[in-house]
TrEMBL record:
Reaction proceeds by a ping-pong mechanism involving intermediate methylation of a conserved cysteine residue. GO terms for molecular function: methyltransferase activity. InterPro entries: Aldolase_TIM, Elp3/MiaA/NifB-like_rSAM, Methyltransferase_A, RlmN_N, RNA_MTrfase_RlmN, rRNA_lsu_MTrfase_RlmN/Cfr, rSAM, rSAM_sf. NCBIfam families: rRNA_mod_RlmN. Its EC number is 2.1.1.192. This is Probable dual-specificity RNA methyltransferase RlmN. Its cofactor is [4Fe-4S] cluster. SMART domains: Elp3. [4Fe-4S] cluster binds at residues 126, 130, 133. The gene is rlmN. It comes from the Bacteria. It comes from Rubritalea tangerina.
Length: 364
């Protein structure tokens, strides 16, 4: 079914409070109707309001006329059963968003796990323009709404026929630059009336928006935090991450210490290894000291090729040398060989190709 250009609002963006306001205050329904509707939306994951048979017919008609359920339309998938799969979804305005499903993986983000992880997008494009990343190649288009964030998860579950029990905000976009919608999506994802996924199974990855890290720390639930560090000194970080000119490492670490004072969860540093750019072994020593100061974990990621960028990953040997230096300082360190590398390299590329094919953006 195609989404209409002027699409109706999606019920997947409704929190328990929003739905109470809608059903009780605007439509005079008793409180138990709110519970019933929430169950249909988030637990039974109804595809249509017609399925909500314990709601009165008149209310079903009103809901059908004014709302839709899923705000995303499945376009295609890359990858196969039991490998990393990348889903492309179309939004009501013709834009595209990517969501990746990563099957059970040992020691992902510092935890032993038999989890199915969804890597979700938070924006269409990204304004932060990190020089290794496909998401920012064509700049920023728009924020995803809360229902579009929640909708990705529910649509991937439907497509894959498998329950997601771990979520990382490592898809397209900078989640902390879309804080209001992210916050609402987190309420829906963690709510016992919503998707009911524990905060400890959710990781927000950020390029380092220091003030927003403090805001995230002030949320009552303890969401995990991953920092896209990619450089252990300001000089190195400045070369590849424009965000560093706004919030330098000192200010970023000040925010991270605040986060740590509020949360028992260990912070993870993501560090892409790019040959000749940030893989100097001196960086490994400084990275290790910085990680130690926070009790943080380190994930080393050999650079994934991005079309249009000339950079390459260092040799495996060099990656192991870099890892061993960090490890020898007593820091828990993983060298993550990206599972998605063979299906389409880094996040953002599938969507860029599709928008290019649709004639939305120029080919690079
Ligand atoms: C796409 S960003 C989205 C979340 C947030 N904006 C951030 O920067 O952390 C998530 C992560 O994708 C990874 N990434 C981006 N481009 C990559 C590339 N070319 N190779 C490997 N990993 C990449 C980086 O680890 C980055 O930290
Ligand atoms: S790494 Fe994150 S912040 Fe940087 S351009 Fe990509 S999505 Fe944006």
């Amino acid at each position: 079914m195609s989404l209409k250009p002027q699409a109706l609002p999606s019920l997947l963006g409704y929190t328990a409070d929003d739905l109470t306001k809608l059903l009780k205050e605007e439509h005079g329904q008793p409180a138990y109707r709110v519970k019933q509707a929430l169950e249909w939306i988030y637990q039974h994951r109804a595809d249509s309001v017609d399925e909500m048979l314990n709601l009165p017919a008149a209310l079903r008609t009103t809901l059908k006329e004014n709302f839709r359920l899923s705000p995303v339309e499945f376009v295609r998938v890359q990858g196969s059963e039991d490998t990393t799969r990348k889903y492309l979804f179309k939004l009501h305005d013709g834009r595209y968003v990517e969501t990746v499903l990563i099957p059970a993986s040992p020691a992902l983000y510092g935890e032993k796990s038999d989890r199915h992880t969804a890597c979700v997008s938070s924006q269409v494009g990204c304004a932060y323009g990190c020089k290794f990343c496909a998401s920012g190649l064509d700049g920023f288009t728009r924020n995803l709404t809360a229902d579009e964030i929640v909708g990705q998860l529910m649509a991937v579950e439907k497509q894959a026929g498998r329950k997601i029990n771990n979520i990382v905000f490592m898809g397209m976009g900078e989640p902390l630059a879309n804080f209001k919608n992210l916050n609402k999506a987190l309420d829906i994802i963690t709510g016992h009336w919503g998707l009911n996924i524990g905060a400890r199974h959710i990781t927000i990855s950020t390029s380092g928006l220091a003030p927003m890290i403090k805001k995230l720390a002030d949320r009552p639930q303890q969401i995990r935090l991953a920092i896209s560090l990619h450089g252990a000194t300001n000089d190195t970080r400045d070369k590849i991450m424009p965000v560093n000119s706004k919030w330098q490492i000192e200010e970023l670490f000040d925010a991270l210490h605040y986060y740590k004072s509020k949360s028992k969860k260990r912070i993870t540093f993501e560090y892409i290894l790019i040959k000749g750019i940030n893989d100097d072994l001196e960086q490994a020593t400084i990275l290790a000291k910085r990680a130690k100061s926070l009790g943080a974990l380190v994930n080393l990621i050999p650079y994934n090729t991005v079309e249009g960028l000339e950079w390459v990953r260092p040799s495996e040997d060099h990656c192991y040398k870099f890892r061993d230096i960090v490890r020898n300082h007593g820091v828990t360190t993983t060298l993550r060989i990206e599972k998605g590398h063979d299906i389409d390299a880094a996040c953002g590329q599938l969507r860029l190709k599709q928008e290019t094919a649709d004639g939305k953006i120029e080919s690079k």
